[in-house]
Amino acid sequence: MKILFYTPHSDASAWLHDLAQALPRADLREWKPGDTAPADYAIVWRPPRELFARRAGLRAVFNLGAGVDAILALEHAQPGTLPREAALVRLEDTGMAAQMAEYVTYAVLRYMRRFDEYERLQAERRWHVLEPHPRRTFTVGVLGLGVLGTHVAKTLTSFGLPVRGYSRSEKNIGGVATYAGAGQLDAFLDGVKVLVNLLPSTPDTHGVLNRRTFAKLARGAYLVNVARGEHLVEEDLLDALKDGRIAAATLDVFRKEPLSADHPFWNEPRITITPHSSAETLREESVQQVAQKIEALERGEAISGIVDLARGY
Ligand code: NAP
Ligand code: GLV
Questions:
Q1: How many angstroms is it from 305 CA to the middle of ligand 1?
Q2: Cα(270) to centroid of ligand 2, in Å?
Q3: How many Cα atoms sit within 13 Å of 48 on the Cβ side?
Q4: CA atoms within 13 A on the CB side of 194
Q5: Across the strands, what pairs with 142?
Q6: Cα-flanking dihedrals φ and ψ of residue 106, to 5°?
Q7: What is the architecture of the domain spanning 96-273?
Q8: Range list of H helices, the chain
Q9: Do the domains at 2-94+281-298 and 96-273 have one common CATH topology?
Q10: Cα separation of 111 and 132, whole Å?
Q11: Catalytically active residues, by annotation
Q12: Cα separation, 218 vs 216, whole angstroms
């Protein structure tokens, strides 16, 4: 079987080495511009459109991340970019759920125990005890109860916090109050103290973190966006911080990455910024999962993680 590999990062040789070990029968090559030779599978992260040109024989495209928005954007801009017969397959967890749970737990506990405010007091050399937030009203709402959101929500319940989750279809997750569908969004948001976003980026979810959403939360709520920058209406967050509706935000993702040096978020002390690093793609776990799925397809078996192109995730 012939396999194409592409990443815009510089570590292609390490990936090719590990893939060759996991798939010893495969004929692996790094895709370079101009390569239209036949391939059975493509393993890619943020590929250029050209990679898909004249790829009639491609059976599956493995996306080296959970979010497939970059690939689907190519298809939306120019329908027919993705070969019709090729399944688009996303990574399922591969170590990202644990990383995401660490990141979100850190942010939630930092706000609950008011470490963000103690950091500012320390900078002013002020010794001052702050009243802790009451745990029973420190409700965390997780938007998106997929592979990552479910793990994050379950992890947060272990701190005795009230945890809610929101998804498209109904869920039953021990200790988590679940809400499903647009009709239950307002009830989900009502009084939430920390809103965590783990939705996929789709036309339905773009701009979901907006002034109307913020108005439903508890006053002085916190926002943790670890999904995609397109979910957030940036001006609405700045306004909500100004009027106190939102107390602080932790943002890992942005509409334009890297965040430009003159972006107003850098000047807002109540926004904590990380460079899209909340859950990294881990090579060992990802190679293992993709290799197992390719072997399964070769045996004619069904695999999980196939993206529904109409739904967009
Ligand atoms: P997933 O398994 O596909 O889960 C998506 C969840 O969102 C599902 O629960 C789904 O509902 C729900 N959903 C989708 N559209 C919805 C809508 N319109 N209304 C309500 N709920 C909706 O995805 P995942 O693996 O958990 O990953 C989530 C996202 O995290 C990725 O798409 C990616 O953008 C982001 N991510 C970021 C990083 C980072 O480093 N910052 C790393 C990895 C992933 P159903 O369950 O009912 O289908
Ligand atoms: C990272 O952002 C991913 O979608 O895996």
A1: 12
A2: 25
A3: 9
A4: 33
A5: 165, 196
A6: -60, -50
A7: 3-Layer(aba) Sandwich (3.40)
A8: 12-22, 69-77, 96-112, 115-123, 147-157, 185-189, 211-216, 234-242, 283-298
A9: yes
A10: 10
A11: 228, 276
A12: 7
> Quick one: which ligand is closest to 228's CA?
1
What CATH number does domain 2-94+281-298 carry, 3.90.850.10, 3.40.50.720, 3.20.20.140, 3.40.50.360?
Answer: 3.40.50.720
Ligand 1 atom nearest 90 alpha carbon? 25
**290 CA distance to ligand 1 middle (Å):** 20
Domain ranges (residues) in the chain: 2-94+281-298, 96-273
What is the pLDDT tens value at each position of the chain, 313 positions in all? 999 999 999 889 999 999 999 999 999 999 999 999 999 999 999 999 999 999 989 999 999 999 999 999 999 999 999 999 999 999 999 999 999 999 999 999 999 999 999 999 999 999 999 998 999 999 999 999 999 999 999 999 999 999 999 999 999 999 999 999 999 999 999 999 999 999 999 999 999 999 999 999 999 999 999 999 999 999 999 999 999 999 999 999 999 999 999 999 999 999 999 999 999 999 999 999 999 999 999 999 999 999 999 999 9
Q: Does 33 sit behind a cis peptide bond, omega within 30 degrees of 0 on the bond before it?
A: no
> With contact defined as beta carbons under 8 Å apart, do 181 and 83 qualify?
no
Q: Which amino acid is at 7?
A: T
CA-CA distance, 157 to 164, in Å (whole number)? 10
Q: Answer whether 279 contacts ligand 1 (Cβ < 6 A).
A: yes
Ligand 1 pocket test: which of 232, 257, 259, 313 has the largest number of ligand atoms within 8 Å of its C-beta?
313
Here the tokens at position 27 are 């004929």
Q: Is the pTM of this model over 0.90?
A: yes
